[in-house]
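tool_call: predict_structure(chain=1)
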Amino acid sequence: MTSNPCTIDADKPVAYAAKMMKQENVGSAPIVQGDLLVGTLTDRDIVVRVVAEGRDPQTVTAREVASTDVVTVDPEQNLDEALRLMASHQVRRLPVVEEDGRVVGVLAQADVAEEANAKQTGELVEEISRG
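tool_result:
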């Protein structure tokens, strides 16, 4: 998992979020209100929900276009449980969230590739790609 991920305040403009994502070299960022997760924003969300609709990224907030039906994992869950969540929900990234809703990390498919065995990684990629 990536600890202390780049989080973006829900009320920041999408233009700010895009700059932060570029600077951090990430395609997805947790959106927070205070320390609590309220959604995730991907580069695809920005393209589809802002650019393609001709909305102004300087005035649209991250909260307005972030995905709010976020699948998360608890830091105490083991890798197998996290892999099952990623596969069943067909997601490449899972915010790692404490019981109180505080974001402490992000588990990405790339993290799994580094830590899991080849069979686990192959199965995960296959499951995610089915959607």
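agent: Residues 90 and 129 are 7 Å apart (CA to CA). Proceeding to next step.
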